[in-house]
């Protein structure tokens, strides 16, 4: 109860302060505390499509093959053909067909997203367990399986961001409402 | 089991429990008429003129269920979870819509979709971090969040793939559109929390991230964040269930379910979207020409008849109430029309109040079934004037591979014997 009263008092103080200064930018309740740079660094894992946020380090296709066989193949198939997990390889040229195959190679618009996703969510049984080097390497291997990197490639922040994914220009905005029902009421 | 705790009590429990075990469970799938007639396997001993057995002994005493659960006779009203999924960590479970009334989904039956299982989060150790293009990067505890001015609002949540565009379509209403539920959410306006940190002028998107093993992330336009977005901690009056994001989640009214990030741990204010895996390779809508629509957020107006609906049976001719739900991610529902003659003629249904924006709205129409085969369907119109389309109209524009945002009209076929099935599967 005392805590509630205190909270209320702080909120009132904040509100009256705003009223006094009239500064909208200062509006606030005085709730929460500052996040330290170290705390932010530990949690902020977003990688931009341009590679912003990619960490130091690098990984080779050949090392990526080992990582993939140990960590990924059980669900995604030994060649990324899919299984319990998504198919990762192939499908280029199928998106406009009646049976589109959406994979990293055929559908994903940005290569850095591969690093972001693997690091945050894979392998499913132990997300976050791979080193940055392993994530670079397995990203490189999946891109190699899709014909987007040579077998002797090594990727780092710069080279991963430089890869032009085949489908990157095929995304468009939301054009809905895109269908019009005339709402016939009788003798339709 | 609901009655496992009652063994601690000794007020006539033996006979009562024995009776309950013997009694046939009356399935809820049947329509009201058959349920009323469905005298239990123990015969007619409890029917007039006899006095029912449960009036002759005291019932369960106070405290037999510290957290109440449904009657054991309702044991079949549970989430609709496919038995044939390749795996159950990234999976979904559906609300049994056809077994529910009103517009509020009970918390235990709220649909589930998670991408790496349900985390078990200690709220004392949960933090919300707010950083990026803000004046003051901040961290909030759950106690902090609950100190903000609170709001409560009723909104639906719907998975963007509910259902897909290809046959076979589901047999029941739950199979078809059961990735849909509606609740009263309580929390804090997202705008207040963002203002606490101070948005910089370049702030255009907020990347929200969950504390699940997928660290699921989606980007939300700043306009939505400053409009009706909520950071919620309660659902239908109690704290969120773990499956719904305990202890903290986003509610983005009218936006596709996966964006309403559960187990919310981080808000990254940015100048552009994250282009995360979920918003590029997953929740994008592939068009027939091979292009794909991205950032398709809104769930458009939709409705479905729940009674009568697939796998139910009309056991008698004569009066039946047609009832269902309508909803729109853009606005309130303005009207719902119902056809009982395969779409040739439509009648306006009655809308049950309250009619709330971006919430389920219950509709009903009295109907006399003459015993002949019929096809019944409903069509919603929202306040923007948008009319729920037919499946054919949608497919003509989007093809069959766009997977998401199918808000088609669903026709139910009623056969001469009263069996109800999904006419779209014919």
Topology, element by element:
The complex is a heterodimer of chains A (188) and B (426).
Chain A: H1 2-21, E1 33-34, H2 37-43, E2 58-60, H3 61-71, H4 73-76, H5 112-121, H6 132-145, E3 154-156, H7 157-162, E4 171-172
Antiparallel strand pairs in A: 2-3
Helix pairs in contact in A: 3-6, 5-6
Chain B: H1 13-22, H2 32-37, E1 91-93, E2 112-114, E3 128-132, E4 138-140, H3 142-147, E5 151-158, H4 173-177, E6 180-189, H5 190-197, E7 205-210, E8 217-221, H6 222-225, E9 230-235, E10 238-239, E11 249-251, E12 264-270, H7 277-282, E13 285-286, E14 292-293, E15 302-307, E16 318-327, E17 333-339, E18 347-348, E19 350-351, E20 361-369, E21 374-382, H8 391-398, E22 412-414, E23 420-422
Parallel strand pairs in B: 3-12
Antiparallel strand pairs in B: 1-2, 3-4, 5-6, 6-9, 7-8, 7-12, 9-10, 9-11, 13-14, 15-16, 16-20, 17-18, 17-21, 19-20, 21-22, 22-23
Short description:
The complex is a heterodimer of chains A (188) and B (426). Chain A has 7 helices and 4 strands; from the N terminus they run αβαβααααβαβ.
Detailed description of the structure:
- The complex is a heterodimer of chains A (188) and B (426).
- Chain A is mainly alpha-helical and 188 residues long.
- Chain A has 7 helices and 4 strands; from the N terminus they run H-E-H-E-H-H-H-H-E-H-E.
- The longest helix of chain A has 20 residues, at 2-21.
- Mean pLDDT of chain A is 90; it is low at 1-26.
- The interface between A and B is large, with 57 and 77 residues.
